[in-house]
Amino acid sequence: MTDPVQERSTDARLERLAVFAVWLVPVLWTVNLVIARKAPALVGPYTLALGRWFLAALVLLAFSWRELWQQRQVVCRDWWHFMVLGFCGMLVCGAWVYLGAQTTSAMNVALIYAASPVLIALGAVRWLHERMRRRQLLGVVLAVTGVVHVVVQGHWAALAQVQWVAGDAWIVAAMMAWAAYALLQRLWPSPLGDTARLTAICVGGVVCLLPGAAWEQWLGDAPALTAQAFGVMALAALVPGVVAYWVYGWAQKILGASRVAVTLYLGPLYAALAAWGVLDEPLGMHHLVGAALILPGVYWVSRR
Fold it and tell me: Which candidate, 50, 83, 22, 26, places its Cα nearest to that of 239?
């Protein structure tokens, strides 16, 4: 007979660990933003995304192949779930982000992605029946305000001067696809473990990416593959790929979609800290004001 007190204690420890972990996810995804800006000279967007998720699938398969074989009936039954999730999370949020980053600005990307956690929160309330208390709603408003304040560097009048370009459409699609990816993972529960499920989704993403990468190579527009290009693929596969996606999916199961999604607002703040610590770029007052809004906002939403 299980001890209810011990079960509650274990659940509380898992929840604290999940809250701590999701604060780290935006750090991992900051690497992908750097790759998106630097990769066009090295490798085509579809080829990069394909290499990223093919390598990620190989890494994950080393840990999950036994479970996938034992659960092969589940995999065959839910194959289209993995294809849809792979399309949203790996093709749209992979290749299309790299395509958009070739022509749009970092400010536009940050402003567009600020809408994704809001969409996830609304979808979680509508379809997942998650509750958003007033404190959590206030936290979302604070976090959004802080992100925009950092992006416009404290000059809110700059929003009127933002120029939207064709590349923004790719980022809008990726923002909406990420919201769909996060919500569908909750709407389609699976008996597979976290690692096995992410492996199956990666395979679905690889299948979706193959035609685009083949077309890219056939046209001859993409740069020739070099050792540096494969290094970029490996970095993208491990840091913003395997680790970030696994932690995000695991934390979502424990905390819910809306509570995890709001941690995406930490991205611009972490990027500023990285630029300050690594590139010796100065921290401005807009960073401090943004932090004063983002940090309590994320804390209020991520609490129980």
Answer: 26
